[in-house]
Design goal:
- It is a single chain.
- The chain is mostly helical.
- The protein folds into two domains: 94 residues, Tyrosine recombinase, N-terminal domain (DNA polymerase, domain 1, Orthogonal Bundle), CATH 1.10.150; 117 residues, Intergrase catalytic core (hpI Integrase, Chain A), CATH 1.10.443.
- Helix content is 48%, strand content 9%.
- The chain is built from nine helices and five strands; from the N terminus they run H-H-H-H-H-H-H-E-E-E-H-E-E-H.
- Helix 6 packs antiparallel against helix 8.
- The chain is elongated, with a radius of gyration of 23 Å.
């Protein structure tokens, strides 16, 4: 939505993308039921929650309510999501879902070592080993990993490193933090940087192949470099 352009720079791209996607879902449901999405009546939102509750998790419904409320505020309209009928509908949706939320498996030291051992001995393998090891040590998300730069690494006397993590999901204003990189992980990182001939800038980069062989070029998201 064009109105969301006012939020550029104030929120992350992921947050803005979520606002857009959630409101499109609500808008499509309203259109199919001949109801107004903007401004939306509390009864409309309550009915939307009731219709979505069999398939959508309560956390998803709460996120969609946040998106609907934000769009209304951007247009300086009353916020219908605070109505008691909406609260009751959300509570009803939460009570009808009794299953425990799925919990993603954590990366244990054993799994990390198995992943490291599975990486091939080529340029991609060098990169992926460093990526896995540093991700394990620093607890960085993928967006934080691809934002790491050589200039912001600090070598410690024992061979370990400190990396400046400039921005994180729980640090929207970019105050930054230091992530510890063990001696073992630092050695894997050095092997990747040497093999890829990276001397400055972003650490983790996409690997391209040409007639002369593989080369590490400009960085992309982790979702694209793990290829």
């Amino acid at each position: 939505m064009a109105a969301l352009g006012r939020l550029d720079g104030a929120y992350s791209e992921n947050t803005l993308r979520s606002y857009r996607a959630d409101f499109r879902i609500f808008e499509a449901w309203c259109r199919s039921n001949d109801l107004a999405a903007l401004p939306a009546a509390p009864a409309t939102i309550a009915a939307f929650l009731d219709s979505a509750s069999p398939t959508a998790a309560p956390s998803t419904l709460r996120r969609r309510l946040v998106s609907i409320a934000k769009i209304h505020r951007l247009f300086k309209l009353p916020t219908p999501t605070e109505d008691e009928d909406v609260r009751i509908a959300l509570r009803r949706a939460e009570r009808c879902r009794h299953r425990r939320p799925a919990q993603a498996l954590g990366l244990t030291a054993e799994r990390r070592d198995r992943l490291l051992a599975a990486c091939p001995d080529d340029l991609a393998g060098f990169r992926d080993r460093a990526l896995i090891a540093i991700g394990y040590d620093t607890l960085c998300r993928r967006s934080e990993l691809v934002a790491l730069r050589i200039e912001e690494l600090k070598r410690l006397p024992d061979g370990a490193m400190l990396a400046i993590v400039r921005r994180a999901k729980n640090d929207p204003f970019g105050n930054g933090r230091e992530g510890y990189i063990s001696k073992r992980s630092a050695a894997l990182l050095d092997a990747w940087l040497e093999a890829a001939a990276i001397y400055e800038g972003w650490i983790f980069r996409r690997i391209l192949w040409d007639g002369a062989g593989p080369s590490a070029l400009h960085p992309h998201s982790v979702g694209r470099i793990l290829k």
